[in-house]
Write a structure and sequence with these properties.
Glyco_trans_4-like_N; Rossmann fold; 6-stranded parallel β-sheet; alpha/beta; 377 residues
């Protein structure tokens, strides 16, 4: 019997390998041919080694050049005509929109995942209007739209986009075996970690301000930063490291070794998150979290139980919560971490997400088979 084909469209190899690997592995195990279209990155080789077929794509993740967008749409149409997938899975904004438009034009079933609205969509203005119009066009024939939080889904409801096709899932979920419960550090030095792309909207400036204040007043603390710089921060971080205010470790392939020595993860983002993977991974590892009271973050925190919520762009509020955390006993900090682990086990197991996708794909294939049978008669 001819193998079914799944085409996955993403804007970065990490989007697949770090957060959707279990789905890819299950599809391969079930006999699907899995094609991945993404700009090249080091994780592509890992995906090819487990059996995926790779098609390189060129995507400008942040720009809005009309010619480049047209080329991306044309490219997606070309590869869909070549591969003839049974279903297309799209993630992130541009693959969702242009992959959706291409699949719609070729009458190929497709499933989209809203991994966050992005600043252009969240903030009112001409870009939001353009984005809404594009989503309406792209999702006209979509089979399913997965959302990572209720606020994003409500935005689509309010704008009458793909009504009746919505389903909220727990973000990308978290692999509870890969991010297993780590022993809580017994060190008398209280260590904090920021793990993210280093850009203004991720709250790096609030984290730096907090690190300066806390280090000056609580010398038994350490502040770490992991991630690659998207903004112009590298020189400042290197300078702060020389001043012994924080330690900058750059981009890290495996964050678990840093979580093992950390007492708390701080994520003061005000970027339009879908569901923060950093918080899920930290909580799964048994680490308390301090993060912003906004959609995509607040869902992972039970205030005072497994972490704290802070106001957006409010360094003073962040400092107060860090001080509150520091004042806890070692046992209380450890209990907070255990509570986070239990929460993600209940609500954010990645298998929930995998099962939702397998169900949606099965429904598409059954409908397709039924339609073909009726047409043949």
């Amino acid at each position: 019997m001819k193998a079914k084909k799944v085409l996955i469209l993403v804007n970065h190899d990490v989007v697949i390998y770090n957060f959707r690997l279990e789905l890819v592995e299950k599809l391969l195990e079930d006999g699907y041919e899995v094609f991945i279209s993404s700009p090249y990155g080091e994780r592509i080789d890992d995906l090819v080694n487990i059996g995926c077929k790779y098609i390189e794509a060129t995507i400008n993740r942040h720009g809005l050049n009309v010619y480049q967008e047209w080329k991306l749409l044309k490219y997606y149409k070309k590869i869909m005509k070549q591969i003839k997938p049974d279903v297309v899975l799209t993630y992130t904004i541009k693959p969702n929109i242009y992959g959706g438009l291409a699949a719609k034009s070729l009458r190929i079933p497709y499933i989209a995942n809203i991994t966050g609205l992005g600043t252009a969509v969240e903030n009112e203005g001409i870009m939001q209007k353009v984005s809404v119009a594009l989503y309406k066009a792209a999702f006209q024939k979509v089979s399913k739209v997965f959302f990572q939080n209720e606020e994003n889904r409500q935005f689509f409801v309010n704008n009458k986009i793909a009504i009746g096709k919505h389903e909220v899932i727990p973000g990308s979920g978290v692999n509870l075996k890969h991010f297993n419960l780590l022993e809580y550090p017994s060190s008398s030095i209280v260590e904090f970690v920021f793990i993210s792309r280093i850009m203004k909207e991720k709250g790096i400036e609030q984290y730096i301000e907090a690190a300066k204040y806390i280090r000056a007043n609580y010398p038994f603390t350490k502040f770490h930063i992991l991630g690659f710089c998207e903004g112009d921060y590298e020189e400042e971080l290197n300078s702060l490291e020389k001043e012994d205010i924080l330690q900058y470790h750059g981009m890290q392939r495996d964050i678990r070794k840093f979580l093992s020595t950390s007492h708390c993860t701080i994520h003061p983002t005000y970027y339009p998150e879908g569901m923060s993977n950093v918080l899920l991974e930290s909580a799964a590892s048994g680490r308390p979290i301090i993060t912003t009271n906004r959609s995509g973050c607040r869902e992972i925190v039970d205030e005072g139980i497994n972490g704290y919520l802070v106001e957006q762009k409010n360094s003073e509020n962040l400092i107060r919560k860090i001080e509150e955390f520091i004042s806890l006993s070692h046992e209380q900090k450890s209990e907070m971490g255990l509570a986070g682990r239990k929460k993600v086990e209940r609500e954010f197991d990645r298998q929930i997400v995998v099962n939702a996708y397998l169900k949606a794909i099965d429904e598409i294939l059954i409908n397709k088979k039924t339609t073909n049978f009726i047409n043949e008669r």
